[in-house]
Specification:
With about 400 residues, the protein is an alpha/beta fold. The protein contains 13 helices and 15 strands.
């Protein structure tokens, strides 16, 4: 059986940890050997499973068994930095403190990948290679940071190349003068070993993340304006980086409210509006609605109840969606947006370009696409329908 990696991403507080935990529990009950990993320093994963302080403490960041087939792991990022990055960091620090090289290197340091992201990648690769679990569920940090996460494989490649180049540069510059300036440190073996070791541990993780049959992202959202906006942005980034979003989970959807309660009725109206918007933003990706429950969702029993509300009879292991809803590519002097629309026949395509988005309408089909910063000022040309896709070309404006 090929391993599945399911990433949960969403704005702070939408219910990522709760949904991750209940998904993992359901998987374990279906017989998959499952681990759910979180890098959240607040340790809410252990809270969701209602573990005691002592159980958590004695785990020391290693997996804890919470049910048959189910482990949870709360990773201490600081500890992991010491383990994997220590030597690299120590050398760079030493270098900056004793020489004037910081200007040359400052650019590289500025894009040094975030530790949370690197740590997640290390664990993804570790569990993928070791194969003792059938499914890895990862509870990602709130969206802002998740976006750094998706760019990681790309950034990392670039960074490693730079580091190796910089390293050679340092050796070239430093060697001849090192005799005279005895206080310029040269990288020692441990530094090179650490880099090598580190690179080895990350090798191949980008392919794992980009394989749509292995890794899928599930966006957790709530029917509220700010939350939906952020989910759209995340959706765009995951798409751009080629990761497969196979479900959008709308959490905390209100059920029936009493006729005489204006307060709740107002909330219900707000939710209704955003539920409709969410459908047009994310289609054709499947959307799962999860009701707002009475009280918080803590402990195995409540997590199990929630998992049934999320997935019904479906198996969370499944890849729920495969096609990329859209693609944005650059072509010579302009950009091309290709939107999958297999059912759309030749009809007039209407385009509305907002400040940061593009709304495309053909008959009943409506697609709302958030545009990357770089393309926001471009002007759309004519839209065309080409073999099951709506194709819109965007050109840089003259000014
Ligand atoms: N459908 C629901 N009904 C009722 N309570 C819920 C529901 N989903 C989540 N909760 C509760 O909401 C709170 C926040 O959920 P959770 O910790 O999962 O959010 P999160 O997105 O992981 O937050 P953070 O961004 O801080 O990590 C928890 O107390 C949880 O029990
Ligand atoms: Mg959380």
């Amino acid at each position: 059986m090929t391993m599945r990696i399911i990433l949960f991403s969403g704005k702070g507080g939408v219910g990522k940890t709760t949904v991750s935990a209940s998904t993992a529990l359901r998987l374990s009950q279906l017989g998959y050997r499952t681990i759910v990993v979180s890098l959240d320093p607040a340790h809410s994963l252990a809270d969701a499973f209602d573990l005691t302080e002592e159980e958590r403490f004695s785990a020391k960041g290693l997996p804890i068994k919470v049910a048959d087939n189910l482990h949870i792991q709360e990773i201490d990022v600081q500890e992991d930095i010491d383990r994997y990055w220590g030597d690299v960091y120590r050398f760079l620090e030493l270098l900056f403190s004793t020489t004037g090289l910081d200007e040359i290197l400052s650019e590289e340091l500025a894009i040094l990948p975030g530790m949370e992201e690197v740590t997640s990648l290390l664990y993804i690769n570790k569990y993928y290679k070791e194969g003792q679990y059938d499914v890895l569920v990862l509870d990602l940090p709130p969206t802002g940071e998740s976006l750094r996460f998706v760019s990681m494989p790309v950034v990392l490649k670039w960074y490693m190349k730079k580091v190796f180049k910089t390293e050679r540069l340092i050796m070239k510059v430093a060697r001849p003068v090192a005799g005279r300036l005895a206080d310029i440190p040269l990288p020692d073996d441990s530094y090179f070993k650490a880099l090598e070791n580190f690179y080895e541990k990350l090798k191949g993780v980008d392919e794992v993340l980009l394989d749509p049959e292995t890794t899928t992202v599930r966006l957790v959202t709530n029917p509220e304006k700010m939350v939906v906006r952020e989910s759209q942005r995340a959706f765009m980034y995951f798409n751009l980086f080629g990761m497969n979003v196979d479900a959008v989970i709308i959490n905390r959807v209100m059920g029936d409210v009493p006729e005489d309660c204006e307060f709740l009725k107002k909330w219900k109206e707000v939710q209704k509006r955003y539920l409709e918007e969410i459908r047009s933003y994310f289609q054709p990706v499947p959307i799962f609605e999860v009701p707002l429950l009475e009280g918080e969702v803590v402990g195995l029993k409540r997590l199990e109840d929630l998992s049934r509300l999320v997935y019904g009879n479906r198996d969370p292991y499944e890849v729920f969606h495969r096609e990329k809803p859209y693609e944005i590519i650059s072509e010579n002097d302009h950009y091309v947006v290709r939107i999958r629309a297999p059912f759309v026949t030749k009809e007039k395509v209407s385009l509305i370009k907002g400040e940061d988005s593009l709304v495309v309408r053909v008959g009943n089909f409506k697609s709302h696409i958030m545009l990357p910063r770089k393309i926001r000022d471009c002007e759309p040309g004519q839209a065309k329908i080409e073999d099951g896709h709506i194709v819109v070309r965007l050109f840089p404006s003259e000014s």
